[in-house]
Every structure is written in C-alpha cells, then in structure tokens.
Amino acid sequence: MHIPKINTPRINSPRLFKFQILILLITITSTSALLAGNSTDGDAQSKAARSKIDNLTLVANGAWKSECGSCHLAFPPGLLPERSWRKMMRGLDKHFGENASVDEKVAREITQFLVANSADLSGNRRSTKILQSIPPDSTPLRITGINYFIRKHDEISASVLKRPKIGSAANCSACHKGAEQGDFSEHNVSIPR
Amino acid sequence: MNSLLLKFIFVATSLVNFIVIDIAVAATDTNPQLLLKSYAAQAKKENPSFKEFAALRGEQFYHAERLHSEGDKVSCMTCHTTNPKNIGKTRAHKEIQPMAISLNSERFSDTEKVEKWFKRNCQDVLERACSAQEKGDFIAYLLSVK
C-alpha cells in the first residue's frame, strides 16, 4: 500500500514549536543582554553611549520592583555602591526604623540584582559622580545623605520638602516625573506647590 | 513573507502567554472568606474558647493607638489613615491603596502577601506578632466597611 507523504501541518509541528521557543529565548536573552549592556564587544563605544543617557533604570527585576517599590520608589541600583546595597539587604528587619524583611530567597535575588547594577558596575554617568562623592571608607545607606545628592538639591529648602505632596527628600517621584523610569534629568522636574 | 508573518505571530503570542501566566501566578490564590476560615482554625488552636471573629473588635484594633518604644504614637491609622476607605501613605510618602475590601478587590487575595504584611506591620505597630484572632477581626472589619 502506498502511503502518500504528508507535509506536517505548519502550525502543529513540534519542530516549529521548538523553533518558536528558541526564537522566544533568543528574543529574551538578546533583549536582556542589550538592557544589561554587558557587551564586551565595543565596550568603550557602549560606555560612551550610556554616559549620554540619564536613565538609571535600564534594567529591572520583578522582586526588586514589587518588594522595594511597595513602600517607596524602587530606587535604581545605580544610586548606591555595592557595599551599601549589601549592608542594606543585611539589615532589612530594621530598615530606617521599619521591619522590611523579605524571605531569604527573595533577598538573595534582590541583592544579586542590586549588586550587578550598583553604582560601581552600572557605568552610568550619574553613578560615577555618586561614587566620586562618597568617601572610600564610608558605606552610606541613605541616598539623600550622599554629597552628590546634597549638592544637586542645595536649592531645595526644607519647607519645600515638607509640602504635603512631597513629604521628604526620599519621595523622588513627587518632583522627578520620570523617576519610575530612572529618569532624574533636571529637564523633567516639576516641584508641586 | 507569509512565514515571516507567522513567525512574528508565534513570537508575539508566546510573549503574551508568558505575560498572562506571570500575572496569573502573581495574583489571587485566596480570598477574605478563605482566609477567615483558616485564621478561625488557628484561633481555636491558640485559644480554645474562641467563638468567632468580630468586625467591631477589628475596628477597635485598627484605631487603637499605642506608644512605640522609640517614642512615636503608632497605629494602623499612621499609614492607612483614620478611615480604611482612604488612600494611605507610607512613611516614605508613597500612596497606599485603600484597605477596605469593597473599594479594593486586590486586598487579601494573596496568602503570602497577607502574611508578609501582617508580620511586618504587627511588628512595627505592636512590636510583637499578631494573633490569629487579631488578624481575623481585622479582616472582618475591613469586609464590613462599605
């Protein structure tokens, strides 16, 4: 008996399905590689490109966003050096007077993310300036206490910060409209009355 | 051309699938009634004379102010305001969506999240863990606020 050769249907083919998965993985990995900006190839070039961008949150992490972001802005990792993030994550049970503890697995994931994109490693222009303004023997936890931050906000009086719509200097997004996207550009500032 | 379009559709649908699955996993594994049941069972274990939860006790709990060992007057109201229907504010001045379940259906829909916040906030306000009865009364109160 002659069995006619049947072309496997395109959509249900397992091979195509694998291909689909492969494409998906490639898309994800290449996007994350792009976002992480870890290319060794043409590093100087990409560093130059990055230094022109103000955006500090080129990378994101779900646990970081949801855990850190439930009480305050999920501060971009590039705002503090690695040593600060490690110290911060070790003391979450007493986090600026509050219990912000997370379970061990989540803590590990967030620490890894913060460290990998910390000011020491982010290569961002702002991160570099932040690092330069921190004495090497200090490990700051409060972003608002960093010299670079103080210098940049010296024209903002304490009474402005106390306005109901602002509250404190830690409330970045009250004035920095792009803070959620890591944009702290001066052009995107609007101070609420 | 046609196959390129197909590939694109496949990739797009896969991405959508991933996103949808992600969202589904992140949300709702419980609801206030289910939580009340499990807290009731716990409360009975903690205190054999426990009968049932009371919204009124939850209301008193919500409004009870105490002096924290660090000197501040604290209560649920510190962040969630005097009325659970209001938008609250964290100490870092970020908005908190209403606690009243009638206004915020996301409340008490994720066991892990519920336990995480009871753990943190009971410690921050009461400087101890909350009992199952306190948790149940609190939920009963937030269910009763219309």
Q: How would you summarize the topology of this molecule?
A:
The complex is a heterodimer of chains A (193) and B (146).
Chain A: H1 14-36, H2 43-51, H3 62-68, H4 82-90, H5 104-116, H6 119-122, H7 125-132, H8 147-152, H9 158-161
Chain B: H1 2-26, H2 32-46, H3 55-63, E1 66-67, E2 73-74, H4 77-80, E3 88-89, E4 95-96, H5 111-126, H6 132-144
Helix pairs in contact in B: 2-6, 3-6
Account of the protein in words:
The complex is a heterodimer of chains A (193) and B (146). With 193 residues, chain A is mostly helical. Chain A is 43% helix and 0% strand. In chain A, helix 4 (82-90) packs antiparallel against helix 5 (104-116). Chain B has 146 residues and is mainly alpha-helical. Chain B has helices at 2-26, 32-46, 55-63, 77-80, 111-126, 132-144, and strands spanning 66-67, 73-74, 88-89, 95-96. Chain B has a two-stranded antiparallel sheet with strand order 1-2. A two-stranded antiparallel ribbon of chain B has the order 3-4. The longest helix of chain B has 25 residues, at 2-26. The chains are: A mainly alpha (193), B mainly alpha (146). At the A-B interface, helix 1 of A face helix 1 and helix 5 of B.
Descriptive key words:
heterodimer; A: 193 residues; mainly alpha; 9 helices; 43% helix; 0% strand; B: 146 residues; two-stranded antiparallel sheet; 5% strand; globular
**Range of strand content of chain B:** 5-15%
The rounded distance between the terminal residues' Cα atoms of chain A is 86 Å
Question: Based on helices, strands and strand pairing, what is the structural class of chain A?
Answer: mainly alpha
Number of E-state strands of chain B: 4
Number of alpha- plus pi-helical segments of chain A: 9
Q: Give helix and strand order of chain A, one letter per element, not per position.
A: HHHHHHHHH
What's the total helix number of chain B?
6
Shape of chain A: globular
Overall radius of gyration of chain B? 20 Å
Q: How many strands appear in the DSSP assignment of chain A? A: 0
Which two chains touch over the largest interface? A-B, 25 and 19 residues
